[in-house]
Design goal:
By secondary structure, this protein is of the alpha+beta class. About 50% of the residues lie in helices and about 20% in strands.
């Protein structure tokens, strides 16, 4: 297939400009896709760092709770079930640890016998942490709940109290952790708008969300697609998925367990809106595309001006001269004074050719005039003599004889 190019000089120049700009545009678009992937990876890394930090804080908090409960379990008042002494001891520890909502002691049957906060008689034997401790697990964590005494969202931890070293369980110590203390870490991370930090328990129940959002209330299960995804890993994962509020986010999840090999009791979520991440990358690409578009417009304008005044007008003058010469106007000249470049050399060659043709024509006219004058003199000479004249043309092999 033969490619046909436009006959216009300016259109061909514009095609040259486009041929130079289109590859650059393709490179910019390709770089934009790479930038989008890079921004997603950067968001995953940022969110993973925050999730890891929060998880580390949670692990340290669990160790602190374990140490506090160990200290309390070793106190004589706790071992003896002294309610008055234990209540006072619990209040002292609670005042020193404002992150805890309450500290309480249950007997072996699950009945509350002491508490840092005022309480009424109640039985907590149905709670997960109590059941696991009574089943032989020394230290256990419970499930999200609203504290029966405090009335705020809490995550309870439990430790077995034994009558003696290696003795039977005589009671269970409880410490409930307030779930509203991670917002400061999130704020200092300066994540994009509509990002969030969340804690989810082992059932997929939302324990905590910061910032608070009505579409994702605490105490309800997280979006099932998200929950199914994180259950496929033991410790950590990064992925993209739609949240329960319908916003697609890049998630980093860190799962926290009590000790190595244990089942995760809490999952730390950090979510960043994918649209905002990609919009940042697209904004950079769009800026380059706009600049490239502006340079394309400027280049096209310059190409048009160069085509018109630098090439088209000169070529048009040369074409006009050639047409005039074709009509026999041998005095036609291009008027272009420059002698450099293809067009200058072409103009000079055309002017020189016109001058040579004009000289040839003038020489021919002069020769014809001289010949006619010579013939006239010869005719006058012949007519003016009475002698006969003959002439023999050796080349033509013919002769001429006058009539006299």
């Amino acid at each position: 297939m033969k490619i046909r190019f436009p006959g216009s000089v300016r259109l061909n120049l514009l095609l040259v400009v486009l041929a130079g700009v289109v590859p650059v545009l393709l490179v910019v678009i390709g770089s934009g896709w790479e930038r989008r992937a890079h921004e997603i990876e950067h968001a995953k890394l940022t969110s993973a760092r925050l999730a890891e930090f929060i998880a580390h804080q949670q692990e340290l908090e669990a160790l602190r709770i374990r140490k506090i409960l160990d200290d309390l379990g070793a106190r004589q008042a706790v071992r003896a079930g002294d309610r008055a002494g234990t209540d006072e001891l619990f209040r002292h520890y609670l005042a020193a640890n404002p992150n805890y909502v309450n500290i309480a002691l249950l007997d072996a049957a699950g009945n509350a016998v002491a508490s840092a906060l005022p309480f009424t008689s109640q039985n907590l034997s149905g709670r997960k942490e109590y059941r696991e401790v009574m089943a032989g697990q020394e230290f256990a964590v419970g499930e999200y709940s609203i504290g029966r005494v405090s009335g705020v969202p809490v995550l309870p931890f439990a430790l077995a109290v034994r009558a003696g070293e290696g003795g039977a369980i005589s009671g269970v110590l409880l410490a409930t952790l307030r779930l509203q203390e991670f917002g400061g870490f999130f704020d200092h991370s300066m994540l994009p708008p509509d990002s969030f930090l969340g804690l989810v328990d082992h059932r997929g129940m939302r324990l905590y969300r910061y910032p608070i959002k009505d579409a994702a209330p605490v105490g309800e299960k997280v979006f099932q697609n998200v929950w199914r995804t994180i259950q496929t890993v033991k410790r950590e994962i990064e992925f993209s998925e739609a949240s329960s509020d319908g916003v697609r986010r890049v998630f980093s999840v860190r799962r926290v367990a009590l000790g190595d090999g244990g089942e995760p009791y809490v999952n730390i979520f950090v979510g960043i809106p994918e649209k905002i991440i990609l919009s940042q990358a697209d904004a950079v690409t769009a800026r380059f595309v706009y600049l490239l578009g502006a340079s394309l417009v400027l280049s096209c304008c310059l190409a048009w001006l160069v085509g018109k005044f630098g090439i088209h007008d000169r070529v048009a003058r040369l074409v006009a001269v050639a047409q005039r010469l074709g009509r026999g106007e041998l005095s036609a000249r291009s008027g272009l004074l420059e002698s450099r470049g293809v067009l200058g050399k072409l103009a000079k060659a055309l002017d020189d050719m016109a001058s040579a043709l004009q000289k040839d024509v003038l020489d021919r006219i002069r020769s014809e005039k001289a010949l006619r004058a010579s013939e006239e003199r010869y005719a006058l000479a012949v007519r003016g003599t009475s002698d006969g004249i003959w002439d023999w043309d050796m080349a033509a092999r013919r002769g001429y004889v006058s009539d006299r």
